[in-house]
Amino acid sequence: MKIFNKRFMVSAAAMMVLTLTLSACGQKPAETTAPAETSKAAATDAGGSKLNIGMVTDIGGVNDNSFNQSAWEGLQAFSKQSGAKVEYLQSQSDADYVSNLNQFVKGGRSLTWGIGFMMGDAIKQVADQNKDAKLAIIDSEVDAPNVASVTFKENEGSYLVGAVAGLMTKTNKIGFVGGAEIPVIKRFEVGFVAGVKAVNPDAKVIINYTGAFNAPDQGKAAAATIYNDGADIIFHAAGSTGDGVFNEAKERKKTNKDIWVIGVDKDQSVTFGNDITLTSMMKRVDEAVIRVSDELNKNEFKGGTVALGLAEHGVGLPAKNPNIPDDVLKKVQEFETKIAKGEIVVPSDK
Fold first, then answer.
1. DSSP characters over 95-148
2. Where is the ABC transporter substrate-binding protein PnrA-like domain (predicted)?
3. In the prediction, which pLDDT does 65 show?
4. Domain holding 295: CATH number?
5. For the purposes of burial, counting CB atoms within 10 Å of the CB of 298, is it exposed (0-12), middle (13-18) or buried (19 or more)?
6. Which of 133, 169, 184, 209 is paired with 115 by a 20 to 30 Å CA distance?
């Protein structure tokens, strides 16, 4: 089954050509605060390039086992292939966003990344105040000509893992844990539920929003509630809060072999193991970061927004899924093909 295999691990130079639409508008500035400290291991310089790229994480941090970490891994890979110097600043609170972005912009970085939808307003403010600077953001659309915005069709990838869950549940109860009830996470939820119902209309999906993306204890508590209600599979879209979902599943797996978690953003079996990770809904944040950074390297940087889904290989399952039977993978592949061709339109909101 070809979902995310080695042909999607190539450099951005080999990725598909996508058209960006330009637009701009103004916004009132907000107050700034002192920047958060840079990690001692925050810089990578492979030499050979004049590019100097900065990345600001949201409060999830660079080791969130999710999109911040994937973005940094993408920048590190770009540094190795291009010789660019790359650095990150880790935000401790949302009050750090503007000051951290300004630290890189005022410091003359060739490109400054903001990672996560929570940084949208800060990116907009800094872009409007520094019109000669180049910025980019993941998971948010910022209306400014000097900002490249990359979003994902999370609903499409979530539909696939929903189908997996619907076909593999033994209790006919399935859970979803979200970090916050906001548009990007709702796309995960709605697509997931649609996928479950497409293959198992009678299955019950139990929804729980924790209100946090960096609170593993809350994730563990949410998972406990859902498992106690009879669910055997939980899909999380909650950043490092999802670590708690895995922790709860690991404890329960000792007495119930049918307990599973579906990971998010990265192949989370690498971190948490195949014994509790059924599969993962991957967002290729790393490749998106490489792609935009490489455009800058080629003097082809453009502002605007691009949305990456199954057709663009921006979302999907990992290449290896040892816990999913072949007949289930075949069904998922059929859905993938139909969605990519537009034969199935996955809902993105209720």
1. GGHHHHHHHHHHTT-SEEEEESGGGHHHHHHHHHH-TTS-EEEES-----TTEE
2. 55-349
3. 82
4. 3.40.50.2300
5. exposed
6. 209
